[in-house]
Structures are given as structure tokens and as C-alpha cells.
Amino acid sequence: xxxVIGGKWKGVILYQLADGLKRFNxxxxxxxxxxxxxxxxxLRELDQDGLVHRKVYAEVPPKVEYxxxxxxxxxxxxxxxxxxxxxxxxLRPEKEKMNDPNYSLFxxxxx
Length: 111
Fold this sequence. Notes:
Blueprint: H1 2-5, H2 10-17, E1 22-23, H3 24-30, H4 36-48, E2 52-57, E3 63-68, H5 70-73, H6 76-99, H7 101-109
Antiparallel strand pairs: 1-3, 2-3
């Protein structure tokens, strides 16, 4: 099961699609650190696993849209809980460390 949503980008892609339909370039702008190749590969895998639906319009230039399937929608509550957990347990402690003058001095003295 974990290989279906595991990795660095699949959870982020699912999160970005949670609020609705997105085009390929729109997803790329929302995730500026992902390469086009990786985004394509991850979307293809999510499509093959039945979590994302890919719709291609026959026009030039090609228009491709992505949305979560019913199976993908069933993961949204889990994705949102992971987001909350990350904010509480990863982001907040890092921000608290940076606001601690002892941490900042220690960190700066190590460089």
C-alpha cells in the first residue's frame, strides 16, 4: 500500500488535487521544486493506481487535466491529517528552535 502513495511527491500531488481539478502546468506552479519529468512520472503512477484521473483534450497545444478519483478522494482525510501532524511535529519545532537565542548562537557557532 505504501508504494502507492509513498515517495516525496505523491502525497503533495494528492494534497494539491484535493480541492479539485488542476492542469499539468498549474500543478507544476504549485510545486516549483518538482521537475516536469518527475511530475509526469508521479501523475502517471497515480493514474495507473486509480487515484488520479487524467483527461486529455484533443486540441493543440494539448490540454491535460487531473482530478482525484473516488479512490483518491478517500485518501483526502488521511492526507489532511498528515499535513496537520507535520505542521505540529516538524514545522513548529523548527520555528521554535530558530526563535531560541541559545539555539541560534549554537547553530551559528558551528558554521
